[in-house]
Amino acid sequence: MVGTLFRREFASYFATPVAYVFILIFLMLSGVFSFFIGNFYERGQADLLPFFNFHPWLYLFLVPAMAMRSWSEERKSGTIELLMTLPVTIWQVMLGKFLAAWAVLGLALVLTFPLWVTVNYLGNPDNGIILAAYIGSWLMAGAFLAIGICMSALTKSQVVAFILAVVVCFLFVLSGSSIVLDSFKGWMSPMLLDTLASFSFLTHFESMAKGVLALNDVGYFLIAIGIWLYAGFLAVEQKKAE
Amino acid sequence: MISVKNLCKQFGDFMAVDNLSFEVRPGDIVGFLGPNGAGKSTTMKMLTGFLAPTRGEIRIFDQDMSQSAKHIQRQLGYLPEGAPAYGDMTPLQFLDFIANVRGLRGQQKRQRLNDVVDMVEIRSMLDRPIENLSKGFKRRVGLAQAILHDPQILILDEPTDGLDPNQKHQVRELIQNLSKDKLVIISTHILEEVTAVCNRAMIIAGGRMLFDATPDDLQRRSRYYRAVSLHFTQMTDISGLAELPGVDDMEVEKNSGRVVLFPEHQQDLMPVVSAYIKDRGLQVDSLYQEQGRLDDVFRQMTAEVRE
C-alpha cells in the first residue's frame, strides 16, 4: 500500500515540475557553492568537503519548498477527504509522502556524480569517505524533509508551511553554529551548551561530511525523522477536517 | 445495513448534527435533502469515517465505525462534496491509483477500469490532466472513482451538481442501474432528483431529522397534492367551482389566471370538476391534477426550523 502511495507522490513531483526545478537548482547551487565559495580547486585537495559543507544551507531553503505542498495541498483541494476514506491509514500516507520526497532528494544527490568523477580524475580521493558523506547528507535532508512535512500538516497555506519550516529548520541548523554557541558560552554551563549543540543538524553532519558514519549521528537523524513525522501524523489527525 | 444512533457532531459551540438516528437497508436509495448548512455533508463525512462523531454510534454491516473504519471503508464508495481529485493526474492515472489502493489487480482491474470509464463516459478525456477538465467531467471522474470497486455502499455528496441536464439524466440512470441490493445515499438540494432516483427521502435541517419516508409521502404532504389545476380560454365566472363538493379552497394565480382547486382530505376532484365543466359548456384549455409541489413542502418544513 505504501508502494502505491509512494508511486503516486513520486510521479506527482515530476508532473508538477517541482522535482525538475528542485534538482536543477540544487545542482546549480551546489556547483556554484563548491567551486566559487568553497574554493574547490584552490584547496588543492582531492575531496568533496567544500561541496558537502554547503548542503545544510542549501537544504534549509530547498527542502521546505519541496515539502510545503505535501499536506497543505491535500487539505486545500479537499483530496484529503478522499484519501482518508480510502482503506489507507494516515501513517501509510505519511510514509508514502515522505519516502517519495526523500527519493527525489536522493536522486538530486546522485545527479551530482560529475563532481565525484571530477575529483577522481584530478586525484585519488577516499571514495569510502565520499560515500559516507553522501549518505550523511541524504539522512540530513530526510530530517529537513520531516520538519517540512510536519509544518505542511499544520496549515492549509503552502506559504505559511514554507515559512514555518524554514524557521524551524533554521533553528536546528543554527543551534550548532559558532555564532550561537559563542554568544551563549559566557553564561551557559558547558553541559547545557553541549546539549544545545547536540540538537543541531550541523554538529551531527560535520563528522559525517568528513566520512565518519557514527551510530549516534545516524541515529540522531533517524530519530529526528521519526519524531517529526509523528508530530505531523498528530497534526493531520487533529486538523484533517478543518 | 447502516445503522445510526443518536449521532451528534459539534464544532465549537455549533451543533452541526443533532441527535440523528436512522437505518438504511439494502435496496434503499436515500435522497438526503436539506438547505445549505443543514448538516448533510457533515453526516456523510461521519458515515464514511472521515470525521469522528462527538456522540452517538455508526454501525455498518454490524461493525462499529469507530473501531473498524478501515475495514468498512473497503466496502464503501464515496464522492466527497466538490468531487476532489488530484489535478496533476490524468483521469486514467487517477483511476488506476484508486484501483491499486482498492486492491484491484491484473485482468480484474483492467476490466473494471474499462467498464467504469464507459459508464460515466469519460473515455475522450482520459489523457488530459484533471485540472484542465470542465466541472462536469471532474464530477464524473469523481463518480467513477466512487463506483470503481463496485462497493456495497455508495455515498454521493451532490453527484449532479454542476452537470448539464443531459449529464444529470445520465448520472441518475447510472444510479438507478446499480444492482438492487446496494445501499445508496445521495445528498442533493434538487428536489426532482429525489422523486426521479430515490425510493426514500430524508429531510434534515439544523442538524435534525424532519422527515423520513418515501418521496410519494413527501408529495402527499403538499397542499397541492391532488389539487386540480385548470385554465379557461375566456373570462369565466368561476365562483361556482369553489362550491363544488370536496373542494376545500380555491386560488387564482395572479399572472397566469390559472385556477387551483384544493381538495378536502386529498380526495379525487377530477370527476366533479370535469362534470361541472361539461354541464356548463365551459371552454378549458388545460386541466390536470397536480402531483404535489416538493419545493413547497421543503420550504414549509425547513422554515419551521429556522425560527
Automatic annotation (TrEMBL), chain A:
Pfam families found in the cross-reference section: ABC2_membrane_2
Transmembrane intervals: 12-36, 93-117, 129-147, 159-181, 218-236
Location within or outside the cell: Cell membrane
Keyword Cell membrane listed: yes
Bilayer topology term: Multi-pass membrane protein
Keywords from the named record: Cell membrane, Membrane, Transmembrane, Transmembrane helix
Protein name (Swiss-Prot/TrEMBL): ABC transporter permease
Organism in which the protein naturally occurs: Bowmanella denitrificans
From TrEMBL, chain B:
One Pfam family it belongs to: ABC_tran
Highest rank taxon of the organism: Bacteria
Keyword Nucleotide-binding on entry: yes
PANTHER family: ABC TRANSPORTER, ATP-BINDING PROTEIN (PTHR43335)
Alphabetic keyword roster: ATP-binding, Nucleotide-binding, Transport
Family in the record: Belongs to the ABC transporter superfamily.
Domain ABC transporter: start-end pairs: 2-231
GO MF annotation terms: ATP binding
SUPFAM superfamilies xref list: P-loop containing nucleoside triphosphate hydrolases
Protein name per Swiss-Prot or TrEMBL: ABC transporter ATP-binding protein
